[in-house]
Specification:
Blueprint (H helix, E strand, L loop, with lengths): L2 H18 L4 H12 L1 H6 L5 H14 L3 H14 L4 H12 L13 H6 L1 H19 L6 E3 L2 E3 L6 E6 L4 E8 L2 E9 L2 E2 L16 E4 L17 E3 L5 H5 L8 E3 L11 E3 L3 E2 L2 H10 L6 E5 L4 E3 H24 L2 H5 L7 E2 L2 E2 H15 L4 E12 L3 E11 L6 E10 L2 E10 L1
Parallel strand pairs: 3-12, 6-10, 9-11
Antiparallel strand pairs: 1-13, 2-16, 3-4, 4-5, 7-12, 8-9, 14-15, 16-17, 17-18, 18-19
Helix pairs in contact: 1-4, 1-8, 2-4, 4-5, 5-6
Length: 415
C-alpha cells in the first residue's frame, strides 16, 4: 500500500466508516447513485451526490480496493469535470499504478512548486469534508441558537465554519429535522467581519432577505444568490461595516472553491445551492453563522427558553397594563430603533398602548434565536395581537442579557 493511503486516507476513512457506517444521508445518496449509475447524475445533478461519490472512493482506498476506486474516480471526474478535488484523487490513483505515491496530491516536484497553494487548498478541502462527515451531530441534537422557531420559520440554516459546513433544517411538527449538509467556503481572511472589504465572513444571527435571479448576475455567482441582512442590529451597535454578504454558487468552471476563498460570502457548489434555492423562503429563514456550532439536546434548551419567556411575558404584561414607567425598565439606556433613541421611542410606545384601549396583548408565532459571543443576545420575532383582533403587527426585538436581567436594545415593527 502506498504511503499516501497509509498515512493520510486510511485513518480518516476507517474512522468515517466505523462512526457513520456510511449510513447518514450522504451515504444514502451514494447508494442511490450506485443504482442509477453516474451518467444519470450528469444529466440531473443532485445536491451532495459528488461528495458522496468522493467519500465512497476514499472508503474503497481504505479497503485497498484501488481498482474499483480508480474506476469510480474515472466516472466521477467524467460526470463532474470541474470538481478539482476529485481530479486530484483520480490523478493519485493513476500515479499509484506505476510508482509509489508519497503524499496526497503527489504531483511532480516542478509542477508542485507552481501549484503549491492550490494543492494546499485541495488537501485542506479534503480534510474538512472528511472531518465533517466523520464528526456528525449527535442524534437528537440541534444548534443551540435555535431555542424556538415558529411555524413561519419553515426552514433554518446553521453554518459551522470549523467544519466548512452548512446544515439545512426543516421545521416540522416533531421539531427541527436535518435535511442535508454541504461543504462551503468562507472569507479569504477567515471570520468575524468587522469592516467593509476585510474579506471576512460575519458571525451572528441573520435572515435571508431576497433571492437574486442568476440572469441578473455574472457567471461568478453560479446558480444564484441569497443575500443576508449583514450588518444586523447587533453588528451596527458594535460599529461593524460592510454589505453584500450572500450565500451563492460557483462559476461554471469551478465545482467548489477552497475553504478560505471568498470576499466574505458563503459559497456552495451549484447543485447544493440549487437545493437551498428551491427550499427556503426569504425573510423568514434564519441563518446562524458560527465558528463552531454547539449541538444541544432539545430538552436541555427548554429551561433556557422558559427563563427568557418569563421576562418576555412580563414585558407584554407591562405594555398591556399601560404602565409606561414599568415598561420603560425593559429597555436598555442605549436603545435604538431606526435612528430613534429611547426618548424618541417612548411616544411610539405610548401610542401603541393607547390604541389597545385597555385590552390585553397576545403573542403569536414566537421565534427565539440565541447568540452568544462576548455577550449574550436574543433575537425575538413575533406577532403582537390585541385581544379581540385576528391580526396585528409583526415585531422584531433584540435583547441583551445583563446578569439575570434581559433588556431590549432594538425594536422594530412591520405592519
Amino acid at each position: 500500500m502506498t504511503r499516501l493511503f497509509q498515512f493520510f486516507l486510511i485513518p480518516l476513512v476507517f474512522t468515517l466508516s466505523v462512526t457513520l457506517g456510511m449510513g447518514q444521508a450522504n451515504a444514502k445518496v451514494s447508494k442511490k447513485h450506485a443504482r442509477k449509475q453516474a451518467p444519470v447524475v450528469a444529466k440531473a445533478p443532485q445536491d451532495g451526490v459528488a461528495e458522496a461519490r468522493l467519500i465512497e472512493i476514499y472508503r474503497l482506498i481504505g479497503k485497498s480496493d484501488r481498482h474499483v476506486a480508480l474506476d469510480k474516480a474515472h466516472n466521477l471526474v467524467k460526470d463532474f469535470p470541474t470538481f478539482a478535488l476529485a481530479q486530484l484523487v483520480y490523478g493519485d490513483l493513476l500515479s499509484a499504478r506505476s510508482r509509489p505515491v508519497q503524499q496526497f496530491g503527489d504531483v511532480p516536484a516542478e509542477s508542485s512548486k507552481a501549484a503549491d497553494t492550490t494543492l494546499q487548498d485541495l488537501r485542506l478541502e479534503s480534510q474538512l469534508r472528511l472531518k465533517a462527515l466523520r464528526e456528525r451531530p449527535p442524534p437528537g441534537t440541534i444548534p443551540s441558537a435555535f431555542l424556538r422557531l415558529s411555524n413561519n420559520n419553515q426552514h433554518a440554516i446553521a453554518i459551522d465554519a470549523s467544519q466548512a459546513r452548512l446544515y439545512l433544517f426543516e421545521n416540522r411538527a416533531s421539531g427541527l429535522t436535518l435535511l442535508a449538509d454541504y461543504y462551503i467556503s468562507v472569507g479569504k481572511l477567515g471570520l468575524d467581519k468587522q469592516l467593509e472589504g476585510d474579506q471576512r465572513t460575519p458571525l451572528g444571527v441573520y435572515f435571508i432577505t431576497s433571492q437574486l435571479d442568476p440572469k441578473a448576475l455574472t457567471d461568478f455567482y453560479g446558480s444564484g444568490a441569497l443575500p443576508i441582512n449583514y450588518p444586523n442590529v447587533l453588528d451596527i451597535r458594535r460599529g461593524k461595516t460592510g454589505s453584500g454578504i450572500w450565500l451563492h454558487g460557483t462559476p461554471p468552471g469551478q465545482f467548489s472553491r477552497a475553504p478560505l476563498a471568498s470576499d466574505g460570502c458563503v459559497v456552495l457548489a451549484n447543485p447544493d445551492l440549487e437545493k437551498i434555492l428551491r427550499t427556503v423562503k426569504i425573510r423568514s429563514t434564519p441563518v446562524v453563522i458560527a465558528k463552531q456550532i454547539k449541538w444541544v439536546a432539545v430538552p436541555a434548551l427548554q429551561a433556557q427558553t422558559h427563563h427568557f419567556e418569563v421576562q418576555l411575558k412580563a414585558w407584554l404584561k407591562a405594555k398591556s397594563s399601560g404602565n409606561l414607567t414599568e415598561l420603560g425598565h425593559f429597555y436598555a439606556p442605549d436603545f435604538k430603533s431606526n435612528g430613534q433613541s429611547l426618548a424618541d421611542w417612548l411616544p411610539q410606545l405610548t401610542r401603541e398602548v393607547s390604541s389597545a384601549r385597555g385590552r390585553s396583548l397576545n403573542i403569536k408565532d414566537l421565534s427565539l434565536l440565541h447568540w452568544v459571543d462576548s455577550g449574550e443576545t436574543m433575537v425575538v420575532t413575533f406577532g403582537e395581537v390585541i385581544e379581540g383582533k385576528r391580526t396585528g403587527n409583526s415585531r422584531r426585538q433584540y435583547w441583551s442579557r445583563q446578569g439575570q436581567r434581559w433588556q431590549i436594545f432594538y425594536e422594530g415593527v412591520n405592519g
